[in-house]
Amino acid sequence: MPTVICTVDVVLLTLQQGALQVALLRRERAPFAGALALPGGYIHAQEDADAQASAARVLRDKAGLQSPYLEQLATFSGPVRDPRGWSLAVAYCALVPPEVLAGAPFTLVPVAGLPALPFDHRAMVDAAVARVRSKSQYSSMPVHLCAEPFTLPQLQAVYEVVLGEPVNKVSFRRKMDELAMLEPLPGALQTGAAHRPAQLYRIKPGFRSSLSTSSRGL
Amino acid sequence: MPTVICTVDVVLLTLQQGALQVALLRRERAPFAGALALPGGYIHAQEDADAQASAARVLRDKAGLQSPYLEQLATFSGPVRDPRGWSLAVAYCALVPPEVLAGAPFTLVPVAGLPALPFDHRAMVDAAVARVRSKSQYSSMPVHLCAEPFTLPQLQAVYEVVLGEPVNKVSFRRKMDELAMLEPLPGALQTGAAHRPAQLYRIKPGFRSSLSTSSRGL
DNA sequence: ACAATAGTGTCTCTAAGACAATATACG
DNA sequence: CGTATATTGTCTTAGAGACACTATTGT
Asked: What is the distance in angstroms measured between the alpha-carbon CA of A182 and the sugar C1' of D12?
């Protein structure tokens, strides 16, 4: 039985300058050495508890990231996607607030206007963006793009960027209340803004690594 | 780099006796020879165009099934799920009307009340059932469980079994109309029933291997 | 004509969105 | 006190479900 090349790739998304961005790395080794690509690597059967652990290891080793939100996306495979041979890549989607990428060696690129990417990384990014957009319509997924603590107007802005359209303020607050995943902190945001300060919230412990969903939209 | 065992497994679901059923096969070879398990097999790098093709090949070889609805579910991996070593299985979900399983060597088991299954096949079945339930709320997915042509009352019954709850007739018909995926056939169902016959429908060509979705539920 | 289910019209109720009033910071 | 944004109250409107009426077959 010919061997199958088993890898993981991570579509690491964040929000910067009002746009969804993918974190790319310049490849050090062949194939496609020197090209910008998704962070990825071989599955290490000796050390990884499963493919998700491989993805977490890749993020840790290449960027020092500890346990961001990480979700399996899909698996891509075939004889031509990798010039080394028949390969299989389990793609993961990770979401982080931009703050945690400070110092990491990534090149952030807006998901609108991607350059050509090696392998089938373009399809992986497209799948990740579609997944995030879709889940943002009925779940708490976008909170993972927001550094804590945050205000509801800030979080609403994140949803609006991800969804690409304005969100009704009253409905948005009703939904956040319904998801029952945020808790207010005693202090308010003051940052010297010449207007009423907004309440700061954090994610309730227990929702940190999971999503809260609503049966209906928004 | 130690080798990773690469396989595919198919959760083949159908509707029989008013319940969602999984198709299981008795394993001929070790590990777990003699046990009921999901149909699956190695990825054949020499012949398969990708993992989905492997899954289609498994269904073809083991049951003579040609191109049923087939969707990638998730990938399961780790050192302990298969006694042969560190393994990775791409799980697929297939939906077929019960008629096409006539003569196939499957043992159908209701998804409620599964026996113990080898590997992590139980988790795969659970994932498939969750996926089908979820997608049934807003898409045309369950039509693939219905042999054509079918009537709207028949299709509604399929949705009700999958969702596990009664469905509003008026809303259901509004949604089917909105999905714009069915077309009526000239003839009506008469089967000697002592009541008004129902219109027969078929899936519009073009929706055969895809789903139609609605932004809102049902 | 009767029984039984198919198909449709319409009312009610829930929930999303629009609008706008009130609250609270800073200058 | 004026301005700007946060937060909340309430009205409007769209859509899902309930209900019931009409349609059409076989007996």
From this structure: 30
